[in-house]
TrEMBL record:
It comes from the Eukaryota. One of its GO terms (cellular component) is membrane. Keywords: ATP-binding, Membrane, Nucleotide-binding, Transmembrane, Transmembrane helix. The keyword Transmembrane helix applies. The keyword Disulfide bond does not apply. This is ATP-binding cassette sub-family A member 3. GO terms for molecular function: ABC-type transporter activity; ATP binding; lipid transporter activity. The chain crosses the membrane at residues 27-47, 251-271.
Length: 289
């Protein structure tokens, strides 16, 4: 007997009909598969709604808080500081710069001498090496870091030093800082997480001192011997008045967990059905139709 070929649309309709029959015959399983994920995903919304109903927003709480005074922290202001006074104690430092030519080498030598003169924490050994470009700098720094884990490397890339005879009109450069400890410079965050605190990675490294030394040396060389007396001070941005949230868990941190566990129910059920179809040969029977 010759069997009639079945098109893709007919196979899709057969699968939909099979699924409908399965849902009708296993209505209890279908009920829990729909209700349980919806309840799990509704829990964060219910918690947030109850929290807002219990502690409604009042303008006075944010303007002049009274009974909630303990939850507020006053603004934080930081005193000015000398960038050369920041850094770590005895470390070996290797200065690497690119590109290597007479102008950049002269600027680096003068910057290192100024940095050694004014910095508060003098390293044990100081070295300098020039390379052709930034890619060669990365390869060289990775090589020497593998041989000496306690070495602090300060890479300086000069971008607009095209001429080998004179300094450019402006200073365009970047600093590639590396040492054994993985430092994190949070340049994208407007304010520190969980409020202000002392001891940032900018203050605990030679980054600020070297940045100031390079810029001050560049200005002096551009002045060509003219007398210039000034003292550069830095100051951290003030932190505004804020509510204390250190150690508190936000409801938005729990939403991904609820959504993930809700979808996990569907995944487990799909895997179970695939195993049953493989065991019963339902897919092979459909191909024979």
């Amino acid at each position: 007997m010759k069997m009639v070929e079945t098109s893709g649309i007919r196979q899709c309709l057969i699968l939909l009909y099979k699924g409908l029959l399965f849902r009708k015959r296993h209505y209890i399983v279908t009920f829990f598969e729909i209700v349980v994920p919806v309840l799990l995903m509704s829990v964060p919304a219910i918690i947030q709604s109850e929290s807002n109903a219990r502690y409604p927003y009042r303008r006075s709480d944010y303007d002049e808080p009274s009974e909630y005074r303990a939850n507020w922290i006053d603004p934080k202001f930081y005193p000015p500081f000398d960038p050369f006074e920041k850094g770590t104690y005895g470390r070996d430092v290797q200065f690497v710069f690119a590109p290597s030519n007479g102008i950049t080498e002269n600027l680096m030598n003068a910057s290192i001498e100024l940095w050694k003169e004014k910095t508060k924490y003098i390293p044990r050994n100081i070295g300098m090496k020039g390379v052709a470009d930034e890619d060669e700098m990365e390869a060289y720094c990775r090589y020497i870091q593998r041989s000496d884990n306690y070495l602090t490397i300060i890479g300086t890339v000069f971008n607009n030093f095209v001429s080998k005879k004179e300094l450019p009109a402006s200073l365009d450069y970047k600093i590639r800082y590396g040492e054994q400890y993985q430092r994190s410079f949070y340049t994208t965050s407007k304010y520190r997480v969980n409020g202000p605190s002392y001891g940032t990675d900018y203050e605990q490294t030679f980054f600020l001192g070297w940045q100031t030394a390079v810029e001050e040396t560049f200005i002096k060389q551009k002045m060509e011997g003219e007398k210039m007396e000034y003292k550069l001070l830095m100051q951290e941005f003030p932190y505004p008045r804020h509510r204390e949230n250190k150690g508190a868990m936000s409801i938005y941190q729990a939403i991904p967990w609820f959504v993930g566990y809700s979808l996990l129910i569907f995944i487990i059920d799909i895997i179970r059905r695939i195993i049953e179809e493989k065991a019963n040969g339902s897919k092979e029977l459909l191909k024979m139709m």
